[in-house]
Specification:
- The complex is a heterodimer of chains A (95) and B (389).
- By secondary structure, chain A is of the alpha+beta class.
- Chain A has 2 helices and 4 strands.
- Chain A has a two-stranded antiparallel sheet with strand order 1-4. In chain A, strands 2-3 form a two-stranded antiparallel sheet.
- In chain A, β2 and β3 form a beta hairpin.
- Chain A is elongated, with a radius of gyration of 17 Å.
- By secondary structure, chain B is an alpha/beta fold.
- Chain B has 2 domains: 244 residues, Rossmann fold; 124 residues, Rossmann fold (3-Layer(aba) Sandwich), CATH 3.40.50.
- In chain B, 40% of the residues lie in helices and 18% in strands.
- In chain B, strands 3-2-4-5-7-6-12 form a 7-stranded mixed β-sheet, with helices on both faces. Chain B has a 5-stranded mixed β-sheet with strand order 9-11-10-13-14, sandwiched between helices.
- In chain B, α2 links the parallel β2 and β3.
- In chain B, α3 packs parallel to α5.
- The mean pLDDT of chain B is 97.
- The chains are: A alpha+beta (95), B alpha/beta (389).
- The interface between A and B is medium-sized, with 18 and 23 residues.
Chain lengths: 95, 389
Amino acid sequence: MADKLTWKDMEVGNIITDAGNASFRRTGDWRTERPILDKEKCIKCALCWIYCPDAAIKPGDDGYYEADLYYCKGCGICARICPAEAITRVEEEEK
Amino acid sequence: MSRRVALEASHAVAEAARMADVDVISAYPITPQTHIPERLAEMVADGELRAAYIPVESEHSAMSTCLGAAAVGARTFTATAGPGLEYMHNVLYVASSMRLPVVMTVANRALSAPISIWGDHSDAMAVRDTGWIQVFCQNSQEAFDLTLWAFRVGEDRNVLFPVMVHLDGFTLSHVIEPMILPEQNEVDRFLPRFQYPFPLSPDRPMTHGALGPPDIYSEAKLAQEVALRKSRGVILQGWKEFGDIFGRYYHPVEEYRTEEAEALLLTMGSYTETAKIVIDERRDRGEAVGLISLRLWRPFPFEEVRRIAKGSKVLIVFDRCISFGMGGPVFSEVRSALYDEDARPKTVGFVGGLGGRDMSEEDFDYVISRGRQIAEKGSDKMIETVGIR
């Protein structure tokens, strides 16, 4: 979106007048490693959801917690905190 | 009725801030600026001024506090000098880039080392690129007038830039001079209440100071440069309105006896008044010399400098600062502004008046004589100086 704006489109002081605009920012493209959840091991404790610094992990209808890859930066905190070792990290290039 | 009073320039600035009815003052004391925040603190403590006086532990914090205050729409004032100005350097960029109209007095002071509490323009020149509107004063009256004007211009909806008012440390800041204090209703007429268009408020959430990744930073900077250049219109309008109300008219470049001048001397700040005496003496002897003084330093007054310099044979620029490895900063900018002109004078630069070194009439006399000589015969010196052994 930003790469379409010219200098004439800048608001005074580069203020963003719409609240909640951070949700438009795709931080997921910073990621080099992706978290993979093993539902066999997951105990649905929600620690990954609590610890995720970007609030990128969300509860699903089935009670499992999974990362929204639009926002997940791949920091790996969820994998480190998981008591069941249910989350592993794989390089983005790998399948 | 306005009153004729004797006021120290620092107190005149404090009086201007009081009459402007500032909402927030945050400052850290540093010589030779001290009398300004001291007087304001007194006014707040005595109930003469209803404002929040926020003491801080450093100039970096003083300017940061001013940013926050200006961002909620408060009329905000601070003052500093020399090393204090340098200590808030990166926050100065934040103020101008976020378009927050803080007004700041700088009681110009040299930079260490050796430690000097005395005046020169090294501090002003070190912040010339920070994106603030910047003006220089010659006397107490101007210190008062330009402080009021700074609020009027900086807060204008079509400007929204912080404004720095430079006044020479000691040779102006500590000098008691006769000046005219206006009536409050005149000040109110010139300076209406400030309405910042984007105040931070829980009622209307928005983002101030967002990240600017490579895909948008350049556009933000170009927009800022265009806006600062365009502030010129309001700067001139502000001086016109000021003159119409108070009877004193100011200009981006002040001229003194420039008519038909073959040689022009360029100075900034309070030493301009000393230089005027020398111009008078030479004019009385029939020599066609004149004086120009840059009042407006940013945005640079290209138009006026080019118009006034045109027709003269030599322009001598006096700098109170050395840009190490380059020479006088005002000199190099003025010369650059004239370079593409068809009819341009020879330019000669001098450096002097550093760290409180006095500049006498004899010193300015030497500058003109030596400057005219160099314009004809050239100089083999690395840097031309005056009053330096």
